[in-house]
Amino acid sequence: MESMLASYPGFHHTMIPEAVEYELEAAGSHDYELPSDLASRFENALTVLKLHAPGSPRNIDILRQQEIPYLVMYRDLRDVAVSHYFYVRRTPWHPEYPEYKELSITEGIRRFGKTLLPEFGNWIRSWNANRDARLSLALRYEDLLDDTETYFWKAASHFGLDNSKEMVREIVDAHRFENVTGGRSRGEQDAQSFVRKGIAGDWRSHFTSDTKTLYKEEIGDLLIELGYEEGKKW
Q1: Where does 27-158 have alpha helices with state H?
Q2: Which of 217, 197, 187, 200 is nearest to 76 (CA)?
Q3: How many angstroms separate the CA atoms of 76 and 79, rounded?
Q4: Cβ neighbours of residue 122 under 8 Å, at least 6 residues apart?
Q5: Are the CB atoms for 207 and 81 separated by under 8 Å?
Q6: Which terminus of the chain has a smaller tally of CB atoms within 10 A, N or C?
Q7: Strand pairing partners for 13?
Q8: What is the DSSP secondary-structure string of 21-53?
Q9: Please, what is the end-to-end C-alpha distance for the chain in angstroms?
């Protein structure tokens, strides 16, 4: 999503140096507090920021006081666990690489479930509970995959960008999985690529009965609340 938004004329994808430093030191930034001068740093710039900061009351207040529109995007945390495993194992500089490099996919999913899963679940809960309805837009990754043009149009409209059918289609076409991977079809995996597989529901190929139980105990209610499961029996 950030790449598509940043492809509008004049826009750039930007990072906050302190956020990058914090993430490297803390092996994550799900408790990162936004700098109080966030808006003034980019006052004369067209920029797209991607952050993993939580929806804490302080962060929400900063975004509200400075009238910064924002998009909250999340995905099925079971797929996040699989993606995290492959990402860390191909990223030697990642703080968790020493712990993951010798783990099997099942072991990696279990480790994520016992370490980061509660934090990721709380991250989603924080935004759902606190986000400003006027300034924010919440999207599921799975919905964007399923109907990219419709949901990118919603994002472009939210940020006041050109949401004409021609512009939306041009940007979406340029960022289709096949185009950004050199011709791979969606579902065709390259474990060494950041754009690994491009599908939703890949967790079903990797979860065991034990890991299903572990994740159900931690985020079962959240998965139902977000529409990923319909009942307690999954």
Answers
A1: 38-41, 57-65, 77-89, 97-100, 105-115, 117-130, 141-146, 148-158
A2: 200
A3: 5
A4: 30, 54
A5: no
A6: C
A7: 48
A8: HHHHHHT--TTPPPPTTHHHHTTT--EEE----
A9: 30
Please state, in angstroms and rounded to a whole number, the distance separating the CA atoms of residues 109 and 88.
12
Global pTM value: 0.87
User: Which tens digits make up the pLDDT trace of 100-145?
Assistant: 999 999 999 999 999 999 999 999 999 999 999 999 999 999 999 9
Helix %, strand %, coil % for the chain, to 5? 50, 5, 40
Rounded Cα gap, residues 116 and 102, in angstroms: 18
Q: What is the pLDDT of residue 140?
A: 96
56: tokens are 């804490």
Q: What are the phi and psi torsion angles at 33 (to 5°)?
A: -100, 130
